[in-house]
Amino acid sequence: MAKRGAFIVIEGLDRSGKTTQTGRLLEQLEQRDRPVQLFKFPDRTTAIGKMIDGYLRSQSDLDDRAIHLLFSANRWEIASTITNLLASGTTVLADRYAFSGIAFSASKVTAGLTYEWCRSPEIGLPAPDLTVFLDIDPEKARERGGYGDERYEKEEVQKRVRGVFDRIGKEMGSRAGESESGGRWVTVDAGHEKDIVQGIIWRLVEPLMNGVENPLMRLWEEHLPRPTSS
């Protein structure tokens, strides 16, 4: 079987250094002449993304269910592009993905959104080969510059979001078992110095740089409808 590109996702709480580490990882991959494509979710440049951007900046209000589905649609409009890039041998790097969508929506205490409902529209999206979750105590994150600029950057919100991420990580881990691919989830302490965090991430990513032999999996594919026999 021909090798395909690796799909790597960097997730994390707000102000965990996620975007910084994603940028550093992108530079490392490019320096090694690896074909790589970066996606940032939400993609705020699309029509859907512009609606999301206004919401995140508290410039507009949307129903909690509507905004969750918009976040999901923003990922689905890129899904086929990700699949094709991976098939061509390109490494795909994502700054946030479906897991953020689930964590932030399911953490809303007044919305009445269940975890299962929030997960449902994400079922079937391309599954990462590796998800690195940058974990940081919300109290420590608050000490970092710019905290509180956007809607979800409140300490009590981040604590709830952290709890949902923990559930997702355990769920993904139970799916992946001891496998190195198909949903591997690794939590990294983002409270360390930037260079230390960067080194930890690279040690996780480097084994995937020669490509992946396993076929691309789909998120929570066990919940996809099964074809019926005629």
Automatic annotation (TrEMBL):
InterPro entries: P-loop_NTPase, Thymidylate_kin-like_dom, Thymidylate_kinase. One of its GO terms (cellular component) is cytosol. GO terms for molecular function: ATP binding; dTMP kinase activity; nucleoside diphosphate kinase activity. Pfam families: Thymidylate_kin. It is an enzyme of class 2 (transferase). Keywords: ATP-binding, Kinase, Nucleotide biosynthesis, Nucleotide-binding, Transferase. Belongs to the thymidylate kinase family. This is Thymidylate kinase. It comes from Piloderma croceum (strain F 1598).
